[in-house]
Amino acid sequence: MSRTRNILVIYACEVPELRATTWNHLYCFERHSRHRTYYLNVAARRLPGYLRQVRWDLIVFDTLLMCNRWNRDGFRRILDRVQELSTWDVMRCALPQDEFISTDLLSEFVSALQLDVVFSVAPPSEWPTIYEGVDRSRVRIERVLTGYLDDSILDRPRPADGARSIDIGYRTAGRPYPWFGRFGYKKQEIADLFLEYGPRWQLKLDISTRNEDTILGDSWYAFLSDSRYTLGAEGGTSILDRDGTIHARTLAYGAAHPEASFEEVEAACFPGLDGSFGLRAISPRHLEACATRTGQILVRGEYNGILEADRHYLPLEPDFSNIDAVLSEVADERRRLELVEAAYEEVVRPGRYHYREFVRSVEDATLGAEANSES
């Protein structure tokens, strides 16, 4: 039998309550690893001395540490707190997301901490740009999803056919930020579009883009389970902000010109850069909709090759030209059931996109498959 290993997951978070998807991502090792897993929050503390008394086999720098790059000074303080770990005889890996912001700091962290593996959500075509300066002969990059399915959603009771009270339910957090590029505006645009067109088809809508209407925790899954359809688009961005200057300029310009259009912000802050980068990825929300058998109306895209248009979701063309055709299908419950059953049977049931498989893949890539083998 392979010996049980010690895994240390390091994160940095000062927020008291997390979205369900964020919580599940953070604690997936605690729930699904076959090894001993420990957690350390370095948001406001240095490494405690007792860590040096443990024989660690793997250190995981979680997404909730890597996302602190939005605050460059704060991220450098975190890097300083964990710098000592670069000298320890242990396998080290990171789970970054938002791989378009402050990629100089991301690459610096990878090199300074002597990481062995980076689990990237970006397509491989963008890795040379994102990880510029990283010694790719020493650091291995593996592609993963931004989130997976947790048992807590899989164990939920299935709503009875016809019991859902909302025709289309959707949440997205506020006006898109210009630094995501035009690609990021799709999430807001589809909300506005269906709020305009939905009533014409006598549909019951629960769509909001207000931050105060964000649904947290288990209530999010209940919301999905009460919606016949939900909306969506691929996550990602069409601009790379290597050193955070685009972010800083757009914040300053927005404060001085709060009513400025995207085109005005673009001309003043990042002329000619939109569309020069292609980070697109399926979102955990898409998988959660599959798991709750909620129909999806999605802007046509790749979705990591997991979701297929007209088989797993109703495709909305990027220019929204087929909006009426899509809405005409929403009333057809038989069509919805075809979509959700195909999505459940082909995306959810096989288990490839469950956190259990994600944890196993991370541990296989770092500790080796033999470390996870049964006796």
Task: Walk me through this protein's architecture.
- The chain folds into two domains: 6-148 and 354-372, 3-Layer(aba) Sandwich (Rossmann fold), CATH 3.40.50; 151-240 and 277-348, Rossmann fold (3-Layer(aba) Sandwich).
- Helices cover 35% and strands 15% of the residues.
- It contains 16 helices and 13 strands.
- Helix 11 (245-256) crosses helix 12.
- The radius of gyration is 22 Å and the shape is globular.
Task: Describe the structure in brief.
With 375 residues, the protein is of the alpha/beta class. It is 35% helix and 15% strand.
Give descriptors for this structure:
375 residues, Rossmann fold, alpha/beta, five-stranded parallel β-sheet, 35% helix, 2 domains, single chain
Question: At the third CATH level, what is the topology name of the largest domain?
Answer: Rossmann fold
Just give the CATH class of the largest domain.
Answer: Alpha Beta
Q: Can you tell me the CATH architecture of the largest domain?
A: 3-Layer(aba) Sandwich
How far do the termini sit from each other? 4 Å
- The rounded Rg comes to 22 Å
Shape call: globular
Secondary-structure class: alpha/beta
Widest beta sheet: strand line-up: 2-1-3-4-5-6
Strand content: 15-25%
What's the structural domain tally? 2
